[in-house]
Design a protein that fits this description.
single chain; alpha+beta; Phosphatase 2c, domain 1; 5-stranded antiparallel β-sheet; 9 helices; 20% strand
Length: 355
């Protein structure tokens, strides 16, 4: 702790904070007005601009607290001038402490709002990297939805054209959430697409991807991944499930199968072995891929949505269009949660084999 640190607090931090909150405040129209009109109007505009950066409940608290603090100081000076400044020491101490605390909170608020702005940009970038638009190629059709628990998340899904009328379908989940998980998600996407561009497919692809992630992600992190390859005209679905939630394969006749794990999650063992399995994917079949944020979504009594409810929801909507199918399952999950905020990222990707 040095004197220079306190000078930076008063000079640098305070000035940067004022510029941060005032950068959206327009005062050009006030330049010709006298100071006793210009400064109150500018202060009110600054107060208003700051309030609108907050959420509505916090905005109300801010709108009440600031005028009260200003009135308290005004009352102190008015009474001081009228009574010869014969005040109890406690009143000045209370005002001083409240003002210092308010200054500290404003400095912290600037840092939080700056971080929030960066996170919003990161969210736009992350969502721009993912294929949210409905997909259609040959007999295949796909639709996806993702809801991060925070501004950004660690869930990953992708639909990649492999050439030769082949398509790769991917759903992954990075352990954790927020910015650390989002960074690892970007690493996963970039690594997978790079390896696909190099011509790797199937088991060699996932094996090389696991080796890369094992060498480059923290030891306390792991990534579950479901990877599948299918032809645009339908036919067999070849898949590798690296420790991911088992996707549900709804057959045209109403039967429902779970595609279980064929290897451990990525990033745990550098020499992990994976197996690619094959299953029919004929006309009218539907593959439902999801992350654990769906099945672990909880209601107000902390009861989870669970695998059984998901399977029942999938079965009940098997005749719906792809868009209605996705919307209906999400409606079931959100209705079950009854307004409880998600604890984990929620992703749902549905692949259809047309009639």
């Amino acid at each position: 702790m040095t004197g220079r640190g306190f000078r930076e607090l008063v000079e640098t931090d305070a000035q940067e904070t004022l510029r941060f909150f005032a950068r959206q405040v327009k005062t050009e129209d006030l330049e010709q007005q006298p100071w006793y009109q210009r400064w109150p109007i500018a202060a009110f505009r600054l107060f208003e601009a700051t309030a609108y950066r907050l959420s509505p409940p916090r905005r109300i608290l801010f709108a009440v607290a600031v005028p009260l603090l200003f009135l308290a100081w005004l009352q102190y000076f008015v009474h001081g001038m009228a009574r010869g400044w014969s005040f109890e020491p406690g009143s000045l101490l209370m005002l001083g402490c409240s003002s210092l605390l308010f200054l500290l909170l404003v400095l912290e608020l600037r840092d939080k709002l700056t971080l929030k702005g960066d996170l919003e940009i990161a969210r736009q970038i992350q969502f721009g990297l993912l294929p949210f638009e409905p997909f259609s190629q040959g007999r295949l059709g796909a639709r996806a939805s993702m809801r991060p628990a925070n501004t950004v998340g660690g869930d990953y899904f992708d639909i990649i054209d492999l050439g030769g009328n082949e398509t790769a379908i991917v759903v992954g989940d990075v352990a954790g959430k927020g910015m650390p998980a989002a960074l690892l998600m970007a690493l996963l996407q970039g690594s997978l697409r790079t390896l696909l561009t190099a011509g790797l497919r199937g088991v060699p692809l996932i094996t090389r991807l696991n080796e890369h992630l094992f060498a480059n992600i923290p030891a306390n992190r792991l990534i579950t991944l479901f990877y599948a390859e299918v032809g645009a005209g339908g036919g067999p679905l070849r898949y590798i499930n690296a420790g991911h939630n088992p996707p549900l394969l709804m057959r045209a006749d109403g039967a429902c199968e779970a595609l279980g794990a064929t290897g451990v999650a990525l990033g745990i063992l550098g020499d992990a072995v994976y197996e690619m399995l094959e299953t029919p994917f004929g006309s009218g079949d539907r593959l439902v891929m999801y992350t654990d944020g769906i099945t672990e979504a909880a209601n107000p009594t902390d009861e989870e949505f669970g695998d059984d409810r998901l399977r029942a929801s999938v079965t009940a909507r098997r005749a719906a269009s792809t868009a209605d199918f996705v919307d209906g399952i999400l409606a079931d999950v959100h209705g079950f949660c009854a307004g409880v905020r998600p604890r984990d990222d929620q992703t749902l990707l549905v692949l259809d084999s047309g009639d």
